[in-house]
Amino acid sequence: MSSILHLSNLLARKEISSVELTKKYLSAINNINPSINAYISVTEEMALLQAQKADDMRKQLKGDAPLLLGIPMALKDNLAVRGFQTTCCSKTLENFKSTYTATAVQKLFNNGAILLGKTNMDEFAMGSYSNTGIFGATFNPYDTAKSAGGSSGGSAAAVSSKIAPYTLGTDTGGSARQPASFCGVVGYKPTYGTVSRYGAVALASSFDQISPIASTVKDCAIVYDTIKGFDINDMTTIKQNYAPCLDKINGNVKGVKIGIATKMFENCSKDVVDSVYRAIETYRGLGAEIVDITIPTIELALPIYYIIGCAEISSNFGRYDGIRYGYKTNKSYKDIDDMISKTRSEAFGDDVKRRIMLGIYFLSKNNFNEYYLKAIQLRNELTSDFENVFKQCDLIISPTTPTTALAFDFNPDNVVDKYKADICVVIANVCGLPAISLPCGTDSNGLPVGMQLIGPKNSDSRVLNTAFAFENTANLKLNPTLGGVTYDI
Ligand code: GLN
To answer: What is the pLDDT of residue 410?
Structure first.
């Protein structure tokens, strides 16, 4: 794969220019994207302009260049870039152009990143298979009959098929980690509040986090180090000293206590369980201590996520009313309520409507105490249970998802079954914890298996270092059937 570190070395050694590199990616996108539908738009003109600027800047630089200088990337289409469309793959925002750039994206630009385009996703980031948006499904680069996962499926598939060195996704309930796991790449959800959400289209604001997706753990650390920090435009960002994580990655996990909660392995396929247990043995071999843990309230994570998530969605989505921005019905209407109702009925997909209605139900006067308030109280309880568990161990290991990539005909009659697949990933969002998904093997069909590491708040560098320790030792050589730009060493 072409990691950021590797590309950055090539650029520094002048073995390639940023314009040449960008052209290679643009041509690979042309060749490969039609088979996987990872990109929904390509920003060629902007990419070449930025690449030229990066080359010019490199010539003038005296000291070391930022690691991201001149390296292309792609963004999930719920991240704002001034003057470009941000559709969230919804009819609602089909023609919407952003008037400002997301803070995290601006930080990448300030460090010389090149925008190749915007990537596919589930409508408004609700979903797990990247098949509910208006641009059609994203297909898995390992097997195009399978889903790339979701909701950041386009971002993960683009990295996996090597038509983007790295991307930004968002992770509200696993949307960066789950597709990363399906596509055999690394997805990193940082501690809540360490990356500004300004310019990320809100889904459930107390869970949303912009999250890097890349081919290696160190690449995720580089992107995270670049985008993190306090932002005056996001009052939930934490004011603290943000030391670079990259410097702390040395692969040493001697004495690190890794916790296993057997509950998190229930309902997982045998191939998934076996791969994760093999990874656990690798950690033991590296001198980590494996401890059994129990979190009695763990099963509450999913209902808490869906109740609070839907409640926040119903409130956030009040803005899509056909007046402020976005789609407005072409039909005639009696009054403003009729107009709003027609607008929303026409422009939102089923899952969006379902979650808004559920959210309104949970927040309504008669149900507020029983659902929303209870979920908030239990969220606090779960968070403190995890704080206690982190007195017994430094990190928790689990599968990322119960299965490897699923075929599109996977369509559980009961929508709750679909939601249940999020069981291991939502914990980190509910409790605001850092969590990473990285490949740990393949199943009997050669599809990647992802494992997850979760750490306590602000243990981002430990999570990244522990993930690196496995990646570095296992040295898995996963290879998707479809592949774009590679500079293998
Ligand atoms: N599968 C999760 C859901 O549907 C993913 C949401 C997310 O992280 N954006 O809610």
So the answer is: 65
Percentage of residues in the chain with pLDDT exceeding 70?
Answer: 98
| Cα within 13 Å of Cα(325), Cβ side | 11
pLDDT tens profile 394-426: 999 999 999 999 988 766 567 777 788 899 999
Minimal CA–CA distance to 260: which of 398, 388, 127?
A: 398
Confidence class for position 482, pLDDT limits 50, 70, 90: confident
Kindly state the average pLDDT of the residues 232-254. 97
Nearest ligand 1 atom to alpha carbon 207: 8
Asked whether 448 and 181 are in contact (CB, 8 A), the reply is yes
Token code pair at residue 211: 């999250």
**Separation of CA 240 and ligand 1 centre (Å):** 28
35-62 pLDDT tens trace: 999 999 999 999 999 999 999 999 999 8
H or E stretch covering 416: helix 415-420
Bridge partners, 211 (sequence order): 169
Backbone angles phi, psi at 290, to 5 degrees: -100, 125
Separation of alpha carbons 405 and 284, rounded Å? 28
For residues 472 and 221, is the Cβ–Cβ distance under 8 A?
no
pTM here is 0.97
Beta strands in 123-194 (DSSP E): 139-140, 143-147, 166-170, 186-189
Which domains can be identified in the chain, with CATH numbers? 4-261+389-474 (3.90.1300.10)
Q: What is the mean pLDDT of residues 275-288?
A: 98
Whose tokens are 């999570």? That residue is 463
Mutation test of ligand 1: which of 352, 416, 422 has the most ligand atoms closer than 8 Å to its C-beta? Answer: 422
Cβ–ligand 1 contact at 152 (below 6 Å): no
CA separation for the pair 96, 351 (Å, rounded): 21
Please indicate whether residue 173, judged by its CB atom, sits closer than 6 Å to ligand 1: yes
- Is any atom of ligand 1 closer than 6 Å to the C-beta of 125? yes
Give, for ligand 1, the residue of 122, 305, 313, 400 to mutate: max count of ligand atoms closer than 8 Å to Cβ: 122
Question: Known catalytic residues?
Answer: 76, 151, 175
